[in-house]
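Problem: given the chain below (157 residues), write out its structure.
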Amino acid sequence: MDLKKRKKVIAIVAHDNRKADMVEWVGYNWKELAPHQLVCTGTTGRLVEEELLRRCELNDDMPPEIIRLKSGPLGGDQQLGAMISEQKIDMLIFFWDPMQPQPHDVDVKALLRISALYNIPTATNRSTADFIISSPLFHKNYQPILKDYSGYIQREV
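Solution.
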């Protein structure tokens, strides 16, 4: 396995009540995030982009490439899930609100399921996001081991 540093594709998502936390986390970790490509849903993408542009301008750095998908309830979660299943996402940082029911809870569950299925690092809270971004593996080319699910597909009902 090649362990030299490479650009990662990092998905960033936050529910409404967690967007301020996400922006603060992105602002704190902007130097780590800047060299990578970010994929965000809806409003989260706008807020992340504004914060990173502000930080990069203040420090004369190049801002990261940010891909903005649709808002989660309008299909952004599903777009992101498709990208994960196509192995185009290296990790998911998803600040979700466990206290607020979401109109698209089934989409949220599907997104978390697909991230587990494709074995990508997934943070659903700040502590886990901090552990992921500070891990030595964050700075290396890491290929997750994918489980062979062909037995599930081939079995008869």
